């Protein structure tokens, strides 16, 4: 049975103080990615993680492929990160070390899409249907967002309130969520590749960049945000 303490959502500061070195705090979850020699060793690590998850009664999402395992931890019943996730993260880290896996935190990212709209309730049902995210039931609120309900890795789509306007060249923009220690490296790489810094007024929470044709993107971190 889950204790009251294990149902408590942790703050970003609490997470940072207890997070193993090979995991990163990403929006709403803890993530780690490991490089291994081949598919068989990746399967072996995934099985070891599964055994520890069964013992803990708490289960991660796993992505397994040739020479890699990606682990995502979250307490879905409370909508955030709890002590359960941190305990299992340390167990996963130990299993990875035993397997000779190499952590690759710089490769972690989560991509969301933001849509400028003056009436999100009007367009959300369409995007839910076209993305295959299930049926629209009940009232759609203006601050609603869409997330893949089946854990297939589909993008989260959120709706940014804007004034009514003629259709501009760009209505969608991607939000690329990065580990805190990777964000500035990615920022400098994008600028060196011809990008332009539009705004850093909210950094280190996010930077707004534009490509040479002024298509925009946000580089985001969990720093200075609620966990």
Please describe what this structure looks like.
A hairpin with a 2-residue loop joins strand 3 and strand 4 (68-73). The chain has helices at residues 12-18, 39-56, 83-98, 120-131, 180-192; strands at residues 24-26, 29-35, 61-65, 68-73, 102-103, 110-117, 145-146, 157-161, 172-177, 196-199, 206-210, 216-220. It starts with 11 loop residues before the first helix and ends in a 7-residue tail after the last strand. The chain contains 5 helices and 12 strands. The longest helix has 18 residues, at 39-56. The strands form 2 sheets. It has a 7-stranded mixed sheet, covered by helices on one side. Strands 1, 2, 3, 4 and 5 form a 5-stranded antiparallel sheet that branches. It is globular and about 55 Å long. With 227 residues, it is of the alpha+beta class. Helix 2 runs antiparallel to helix 3 (83-98). The chain folds into 2 domains: 5-107, 2-Layer Sandwich (Gyrase A, domain 2); 110-220, Roll (2,3-Dihydroxybiphenyl 1,2-Dioxygenase, domain 1).
> Which CATH class of the largest domain is shown?
Alpha Beta
Using the 3D structure, state the CATH architecture of the largest domain. Roll
Strand content: 25-35%
CATH-level-4 superfamily name of the largest domain: 2,3-Dihydroxybiphenyl 1,2-Dioxygenase, domain 1
Q: If you average the pLDDT, what whole number results? A: 88
Helical element count?
5
Task: Please give a quick description of this structure.
The chain has 227 residues and is α+β, with helices and mostly antiparallel strands. The protein folds into two domains: 5-107, 2-Layer Sandwich (Gyrase A, domain 2), CATH 3.30.1360; 110-220, 2,3-Dihydroxybiphenyl 1,2-Dioxygenase, domain 1 (Roll), CATH 3.10.180.
